Known about the structure:
With 57 residues, the chain is mainly α. 61% of the residues lie in helices and 0% in strands. The chain is elongated.
Amino acid sequence: MLFGLGWPEVAVIAIVAILIFGPKKIPELGNALGKTLRGFQEELKKPSEDDSPEQEK
Length: 57
């Protein structure tokens, strides 16, 4: 499944996350994580200005 984890492991991780952060905080954490991953993927997709050969004067 996900990173080599099965459904029982995912369920245990979800229960521990709910116990630690609380049910109201989980959607906020997921939203922040999603925005971070989207930003990271966009940076990987766009051509980097540092990689382009610089023109010498």
